[in-house]
Amino acid sequence: MSPVRTTPGLAAIMLAVLTVAPACDANQRMLTMAIQNKEGVPCFSIPAETRPSGTDLKVDAIIVSEIDAAGAEVREIWTAVAPDGIDPLAVSDCIQYGVDRPSLKTRGSVGALRLGVRYDAFINASVETRRGWSNRSYAGKFCLAQSVSGLEVRQVRNGPASDQSRWQACNISTHDTP
Description:
mainly beta; 178 residues
């Protein structure tokens, strides 16, 4: 898995979320989210195999950023936070890009997604365990590509920034940056 790069905006959100989440698990690791294609728009979800059994996750924040070929953030294009600190996310649910949910609200404007651009998504969530609240962080990369049926969201597998071949399904040159 590639390391998570933080920027001042991402760092501030993460700090705010982590200060709100009580008794966060100090041994957390970055988990992989699922990114689905919903009529050319990404929809972010948490796979059942990365969830504690028998419980729903509570989403604290989601951030989507444009990234360059090295994996560094170019700019945040969508940030949504749960003002009360929780937005339930069942296994069958997904968070559609740019769409508010009952407890998850967009901060600022929603940037337009473009062909030929690399994107990084991050979800910070909490789950109640026998030992109290535990923090979970999920990440994923994606792009938009042209298909016969129109625009299509394609999830890009995790890997080192040096492995540019993973972006080939996006028709992005290994030397281009957004």
